[in-house]
């Protein structure tokens, strides 16, 4: 796989997905419950804010998406493979491993919900975006192009993917092709970018060259962070070269 993700990048992405996997020692039951309760309160507050800010029709669609996300959270956080727990079968909902992993996933969802209703001063797409399902993309919009680095860690076995490139951008639709970038690669890879209701929808074709078997770039991404000049320069450099930065 070209543009293999560095160990450092993989580590950082995995930490974002599972706080449990980042701990030398798992939290005890009391501490894990406290971590989960804090994350849950933040998620509920972000959910309430979204309910107040969004039109009823849009919020009703969000409720459907939230139900799907809760299933995703429990699927991962109850997996011994994902949490590193020494157990057979699904973890109990009150187990420390589940609570700690679920808290980390809820932190990502809280960030996504806040981004969904945040009013950004910068009207371009420049920023860091997440889909709250393990995918992130850093974008610099300049002169009709999107310079981007997209990366993901998917599923309980942490299948990873990463791709840097430049997409043509004609608001609110963008298109990326890697045609001619690697002479040994026969199938053209494409990414489409569609901006709709503050969400950047990404759909890929023939992307397997850049990620593991169960990883994917497709998702509904929300802007969650601005990018300073240094970060933008790093992204533009990577996008032009097609190589992911080492850190």
Class of the largest domain in CATH?
Mainly Beta
Structural class: alpha+beta
Q: Residue share in helices?
A: 25-40%
Helix tally equals: 6
- Low-pLDDT ranges: 1-13, 15-23
What portion of the residues fall into strands of 2 or more residues?
15-25%
The rounded distance between the terminal residues' Cα atoms is 18 Å
User: How many whole angstroms does the radius of gyration measure?
Assistant: 18 Å
Give the topology string: H per helix, E per strand: HHHHHEEEEEEEEH
Quickly count the domains. 2
| CATH architectural arrangement of the largest domain | Beta Barrel
Q: How many strands in all?
A: 8
Mean pLDDT: 91
What fold name stands as the CATH topology of the largest domain?
Lipocalin
* Major sheet characteristics: 8 strands, antiparallel, barrel
Strand order of the largest sheet: 1-2-3-4-5-6-7-8
How would you sum up the global shape?
globular
Query: What oligomeric arrangement do these chains adopt?
Result: single chain
Describe the overall structure:
The chain is an alpha+beta fold and 247 residues long. The protein has two domains: 100 residues, Substrate Binding Domain Of Dnak, Chain:A, Domain 2 (Up-down Bundle); 121 residues, Lipocalin (Beta Barrel), CATH 2.40.128. The chain is 39% helix and 24% strand. It has six helices and eight strands. It has an eight-stranded antiparallel barrel with strand order 1-2-3-4-5-6-7-8. Helix 2 runs parallel beside helix 5 and helix 3 packs antiparallel against helix 5. The longest helix has 25 residues.
């Amino acid at each position: 796989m070209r543009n293999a993700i560095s160990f450092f990048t993989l580590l950082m992405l995995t930490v974002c997905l599972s706080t449990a996997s980042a701990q030398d020692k798992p939290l005890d039951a009391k501490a894990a419950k406290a971590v989960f309760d804090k994350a849950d309160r933040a998620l509920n507050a972000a959910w309430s804010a979204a309910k107040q800010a969004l039109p009823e029709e849009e919020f009703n669609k969000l409720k459907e998406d939230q139900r799907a996300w809760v299933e995703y959270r429990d699927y991962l956080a109850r997996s011994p493979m994902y949490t590193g727990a020494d157990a057979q079968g699904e973890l109990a909902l009150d187990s420390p491993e589940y609570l700690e992993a679920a808290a980390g996933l809820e932190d990502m969802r809280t960030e996504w919900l806040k981004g969904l209703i945040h009013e950004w001063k910068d009207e371009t797409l420049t920023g860091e975006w997440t889909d709250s399902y393990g995918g992130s993309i850093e974008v610099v919009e300049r002169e009709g192009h999107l310079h981007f680095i997209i990366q993901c860690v998917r599923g309980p076995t942490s299948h990873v993917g990463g791709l840097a490139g430049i997409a043509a951008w004609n608001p609110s639709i963008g298109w990326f092709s890697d045609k001619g970038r690697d002479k040994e690669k026969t199938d053209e890879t494409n990414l489409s970018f569609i901006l709709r209701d503050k969400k950047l929808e990404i759909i890929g074709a023939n992307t397997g060259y850049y990620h593991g078997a169960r990883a994917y770039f497709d998702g509904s991404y929300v802007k969650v962070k601005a990018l300073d000049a240094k970060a933008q320069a790093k992204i533009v450099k990577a996008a032009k070269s097609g190589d992911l930065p080492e850190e």
